[in-house]
Automatic annotation (TrEMBL):
<keyword id="KW-0865">Zymogen</keyword>
<dbReference type="InterPro" id="IPR015500">
    <property type="entry name" value="Peptidase_S8_subtilisin-rel"/>
</dbReference>
<dbReference type="InterPro" id="IPR032815">
    <property type="entry name" value="S8_pro-domain"/>
</dbReference>
<keyword id="KW-0325">Glycoprotein</keyword>
<dbReference type="InterPro" id="IPR023827">
    <property type="entry name" value="Peptidase_S8_Asp-AS"/>
</dbReference>
<feature type="domain" description="P/Homo B">
    <location>
        <begin position="446"/>
        <end position="554"/>
    </location>
</feature>
<feature type="active site" description="Charge relay system">
    <location>
        <position position="196"/>
    </location>
</feature>
<protein>
    <submittedName>
        <fullName>Proprotein convertase subtilisin/kexin type 4, isoform CRA_c</fullName>
    </submittedName>
</protein>
<keyword id="KW-0720">Serine protease</keyword>
<dbReference type="InterPro" id="IPR000209">
    <property type="entry name" value="Peptidase_S8/S53_dom"/>
</dbReference>
<dbReference type="Pfam" id="PF00082">
    <property type="entry name" value="Peptidase_S8"/>
</dbReference>
<dbReference type="InterPro" id="IPR034182">
    <property type="entry name" value="Kexin/furin"/>
</dbReference>
<dbReference type="InterPro" id="IPR002884">
    <property type="entry name" value="P_dom"/>
</dbReference>
<dbReference type="GO" id="GO:0004252">
    <property type="term" value="F:serine-type endopeptidase activity"/>
</dbReference>
<dbReference type="GO" id="GO:0005783">
    <property type="term" value="C:endoplasmic reticulum"/>
</dbReference>
<dbReference type="InterPro" id="IPR008979">
    <property type="entry name" value="Galactose-bd-like_sf"/>
</dbReference>
<keyword id="KW-0645">Protease</keyword>
Length: 554
């Protein structure tokens, strides 16, 4: 290399090195009354300087070192100019190797700023517009946005190229089980009937800070979509949808079920039940897949979500709705299987949910429990980012503890045997994302699940106007061993019965602590219909101790 080139290269290196040492600020420095001083002979020399020039020696900056913190009471605490007198005095001291008058430095917490999306101001349920919202901002300010979590929407497809979805779209979490191809793009129709899945997807994972629409609850989570409702729906289609990539997908969100007509009693077939079982036992490397389910919109027909075998499964986490004002929506179904509640809307004048829509559009008109379940799915994604080792049962415990009655209005609130308020309309209350994440961080794993089956009625029994079936339960037989029941998560009652007009039937289960769960409520059915030959009915989720004692089926 020629000398001139060497000189140029070295000059460039030195320039870069000098630039790396000093930091420029657009604001003028503000000088304070403190100095950092490095002296050769340690503490004694620092004390001598302090006495000589009127400083107060506040001690060493580093333990056992030559750097000291000196402050002068006669110098302004804040000034736009340095104190030149002390600068000159310290410069003349032979034992002072370095000194610097301190300046204020602007530092900001690296919390997540509020999204800049134009419609975030409309997202009243998480932008602190109301006092008791879903407490999403608290979690975002901890840097949690769903990163590393995969959510799949089981519905009528997902517009994967939507401006607010494409960045988070996950093809591995997507499939079309109606046409059996990998593309879940919805089928477009004149009335946009297949917009449901795209709307649910945006609630979970709409991209933030891209200048478009609003933000998803877990806006850095990966989002997939399964097209399975826009065609012939069979037990095979449902089972395959619920079994898609179980080691890749963490959360499945479903906002559908049997007809909400007040007459239908229906649930998953044998294959779908097996898909649920395999999901919770083998999914997520054995931690268990999360199945989030909307509780249903049949309130106008006095429908009861306990008659929906998807929401009342112990393997799903059923989510109900409340309005901005904390009222029960007109479409809400009251049942014992509901775990928790998030926001939606009531009458048409109520503010609704902001999300993505077909044709690369946005909407602020998403509603029903269909809108509530994806909000919960997004919140659970935040909890899984905080603690990826949570099992499906851990999340059920956490959701119960992170749900608060808050301002939710209902006449059936009561305190159960473990001291928690519970309602058939709202489950354990409004889900609080901040509390959910706080609990998730410190949660200890639950012990392995045990199942206890007790046969109560052994022979066919006529149905009387009022029947009481008591059973005292203290132990559970496990093969040849009798085990004392110490805690309880779920209670299910399996019934096989026939009745001339099933809409006239009411069935209750009362716990040893007096908590009464409505298993079947009176429904206004216009024609006599016999109850299905077999139905599994859950009580309110029984998370806690005090499991033993007399249970009454009425």
């Amino acid at each position: 290399m020629r000398p001139s080139q060497t000189a140029l290269w070295l000059g460039l290196v030195l320039s870069l090195a000098l630039l790396a040492v000093g930091w420029a600020s657009a604001r003028p420095p503000i000088y304070v009354s403190s100095w950092a001083v490095r002296v050769t002979k340690g503490y004694q020399e620092a004390e001598r300087l302090a006495r000589k020039f009127g400083f107060v020696n506040l001690g060493q900056i580093f333990p056992d070192d030559q750097y000291f913190h000196l402050r002068h009471r006669g110098v302004a605490q804040q000034s736009l100019t340095p104190h030149w007198g002390h600068r000159l005095r310290l410069k003349k001291e032979p034992k002072v190797r370095w000194f610097e008058q301190q300046t204020l430095r602007r530092r900001v917490k690296r919390s997540l700023v509020v999204p800049t999306d134009p419609w975030f101001s409309k997202q009243w349920y998480m932008n602190k517009e109301i006092e008791q919202d879903l407490n999403i901002l608290k979690v975002w300010n901890q840097g949690l946005t769903g990163r590393g979590v995969v959510v799949s929407i089981l519905d009528d497809g997902i517009e994967k190229d939507h401006p607010d979805l494409w960045a988070n779209y996950d093809p591995l979490a997507s499939y079309d089980f109606n046409d059996y191809d990998p593309d879940p793009q919805p089928r477009y129709t004149p009335n946009d009937e297949n917009r449901h899945g795209t709307r649910c997807a945006g609630e979970v994972s709409a991209t933030a800070n891209n200048g478009f629409c609003g933000a998803g609850v877990a806006f850095n989570a990966r989002i997939g979509g399964v097209r399975m409702l826009d065609g012939a729906i069979t037990d095979i289609v449902e089972a395959q949808s619920l079994s898609l990539q179980p080691q890749h997908i963490h959360i499945y969100s479903a906002s559908w079920g049997p007809e909400d007509d007040g007459r239908t009693v229906d649930g998953p077939g044998l294959l779908t039940q097996e898909a649920f079982r395999r999901g919770v036992t083998k999914g997520r490397q054995g931690l268990g897949t999360l199945f989030i389910w909307a509780s249903g919109n049949g309130g106008l027909h006095y429908d009861n979500c306990n008659c929906d075998g998807y929401t009342n499964s112990i393997h799903t986490l059923s989510v109900g709705s409340t309005t901005r004002q904390g009222r029960v929506p007109w479409y809400s179904e009251a049942c014992a299987s509901t775990f928790t509640t998030t926001f939606s809307s009531g009458v048409v004048t109520d503010p609704q949910i902001v999300t993505t829509d077909l044709h690369h559009q946005c909407t602020d008109k998403h509603t029903g429990t269909s809108a509530s379940a994806p909000l919960a799915a997004g919140m659970i994604a935040l909890a899984l980012e905080a603690n990826p080792l949570l099992t499906w049962r851990d999340l059920q415990h956490l959701v119960v503890r992170a749900s608060r009655p808050a301002q939710l209005q209902a006449e059936d609130w009561r305190i159960n045997g473990v001291g928690r308020q519970v309602s058939h309309h709202y489950g354990y209350g409004l889900l609080d994302a901040g509390l959910l994440v706080d609990l998730a961080r410190v949660w200890l794993p639950t012990k392995p699940q045990k199942k206890c089956t007790i046969r109560v009625v052994h022979t066919p029994t006529p149905i009387l106007p009022r029947m009481l079936v008591p059973k005292n339960v203290t132990v559970c037989c496990d093969g040849s061993r009798r085990r004392l029941i110490r805690s309880l998560e779920h209670v299910q009652v399996q019934l096989s019965l026939s009745y001339s007009r099933r809409g006239d039937l009411e069935i209750f289960l009362t716990s040893p602590m007096g908590t009464r769960s409505t298993l079947v409520a009176i429904r206004c059915e216009k024609s006599p219909r016999a109850l299905g030959t077999s139905g599994v009915l859950p009580s309110l989720p029984q998370v806690g101790p005090y499991p033993v004692g007399l249970r009454r089926l009425l």
